[in-house]
Design a protein that fits this description.
The protein has three domains: 5-85 and 201-266 and 337-391, NAD(P)-binding Rossmann-like Domain (Rossmann fold, 3-Layer(aba) Sandwich), CATH 3.40.50.720; 96-185, no CATH class; 268-324, no CATH class. It contains ten helices and 21 strands. The protein has helices spanning 17-29, 71-78, 105-111, 114-127, 136-140, 145-167, 205-213, 256-259, 340-354, 373-391, and strands at 10-13, 34-37, 49-51, 57-59, 66-68, 83-85, 90-94, 97-100, 133-135, 183-185, 197-201, 218-221, 230-232, 239-241, 249-252, 269-279, 289-291, 300-303, 315-324, 335-336, 359-361. The protein binds flavin-adenine dinucleotide.
Length: 392
């Protein structure tokens, strides 16, 4: 152990992206001593990757591609490892045909008879002469019946069943407005994301985390549930550490309802289960990720040997099943279910947290938000400033 808990200036709960970056910044730029408690047996949170039994690098908690339009964030993360430019191809299988997603002009060619396809593309060019992508909602609500029919086809065959399965509701209860921002391409361009920077770390995310966390002022304890070590003072204004007579600042990146022992009720999440398989074939499917909207139980399959810098050792893939989240079972809270009710409950927990003087919250769980990695990174860097100002 590099230093003792008595010497720590901060305890950070969670060694995911947010916890790790905050630790790095405080350790290097503020010369603070940081103790990280991580419940899992590894660092890197949901970005954790490893080499499987067949020599292929896989992402334990689902496929992760770093993408951003913010050059500063890209520069920040690439300080900690080499990244390969990578634009991920994504297909969706509808009625047995695999078509690009976001859907593009090839989708029209794939599903409509030639004459109808040409007519539809012509209408699109007339109504949207300068638009590369358009949200599906706009297509569904369009005044032109031919364009609207295309939207209805995509909604019925893909968006409604996929979204319903993802969130555990019936397709007929899917309100198209939830898809307000989902893009459809009006060109033959492919590639899942449009961001300026899209990349994967050449040696994996876990190696990037090793570099972020490798500092004499950072001490990490894995397999350590912070909640078995922390407790609230009687007036609930301080978080204290069992057996420690010193006050210490706590930065918490875990779930907020859990921190307060679910005293106001549980925040709702959706979970995932991954079924891992390996086959001795060079290729299992036509793209790294294929979505299967019409399958009853799973949403998509990721074939990891199709990500960059893999050896030709067969196909390792994970089938992704959305699941109910139950905190009493061994499942992870992946996606917050954002409703008016859940936001209200979250705000009540936030109010409780604001009374705890030595507590700072950040991260997808503590903030009860879905963050892409660049948003999580931004949140971490902003939190560092908050923490520094708080102490001054
Ligand atoms: P986490 O990574 O969850 O880290 C929090 C850590 O805190 C965890 O390791 C947890 O074990 C630990 N912890 C919690 N409670 C305690 C406790 N009591 N004691 C000790 N430790 C505790 N983003 C992209 O930009 N591109 C993608 O392609 C992408 N794909 C994704 C795919 C899936 C399936 C999912 C779910 C997310 C994806 N993301 C993607 C989002 C990305 O995973 C997050 O932005 C990022 O991991 C958030 O980091 P974090 O530190 O907030 O949370």
């Amino acid at each position: 152990m590099a230093f003792d808990i008595e010497e720590s200036d901060f305890i950070i709960v969670g060694a995911g992206l947010v916890g790790a970056v905050i630790a790095r910044e405080l350790a290097v730029n503020q010369q603070k001593k940081i103790l990280i408690w991580e419940r899992r047996n590894h660092i890197a949170g949901n970005m954790y990757d490893y080499i499987d039994d067949f020599g292929i690098r896989v992402h334990k908690y689902g496929p992760h591609v770093f993408h951003t339009n913010d050059e500063n964030l890209f520069d920040y993360i690439t300080q900690f490892g080499e990244f390969d430019k990578f634009s991920i191809d994504y297909l969706a299988e509808i009625d047995g045909i695999q078509t690009p997603t976001p859907f593009n002009f090839k989708t029209i060619d794939d599903f409509f008879p030639r004459r109808e396809a040409e007519e539809l593309k012509q209408h699109i060019k007339e109504y949207f002469p300068f638009q590369e992508t358009v949200p599906i909602l706009k297509i569904l609500k369009h005044s032109d019946p031919i364009i609207r029919k295309y939207g209805e086809f995509l909604f019925e065959k893909d968006y409604a069943p996929y979204t319903a399965k993802q969130w555990g509701i019936s397709p007929k209860d899917i309100d198209p407005s939830v898809l307000a921002r989902v893009p459809v391409r009006f060109s033959y361009k492919i590639g899942y994301f449009d961001d300026k920077f899209q990349a994967l770390p050449s040696n994996g995310y876990t190696a990037v985390f090793n570099n972020i966390l490798n500092h004499k002022n950072i001490n990490i304890e894995l397999n350590t549930d912070a909640l078995s070590r922390l407790f609230f003072s009687e007036d609930n204004t301080e978080l204290l550490v069992k057996g420690l007579n010193k006050k210490v600042q706590v930065i918490y990146t875990g779930a907020l309802d859990e921190l307060f022992d679910w005293s106001l009720g549980a925040l709702p999440y959706r979970s995932l289960k991954f079924e891992w398989r390996h086959e001795k074939v060079a290729s299992f499917q036509n793209a790294p990720i294929v979505a299967y909207p019409q399958e009853p139980l799973f949403t998509r399959i990721t074939e990891y040997n199709k990500l960059p810098v893999q050896q030709d050792r067969g196909a390792s893939y994970a089938i992704e099943y959305p699941q109910i989240y139950d905190r009493n079972k061994e499942v992870e809270p992946y996606y917050p279910i954002l409703t008016n009710e859940s936001q209200t409950l979250y705000k009540k927990y936030l109010e409780k947290a604001s009374k705890v003087k030595n507590l700072t919250l950040a991260g997808r769980l503590a903030d009860f938000k879905y963050y892409n990695m660049d948003q999580a990174l931004k949140r971490a860097l902003e939190t560092v400033q908050v923490v520094i100002n708080k102490r001054d």
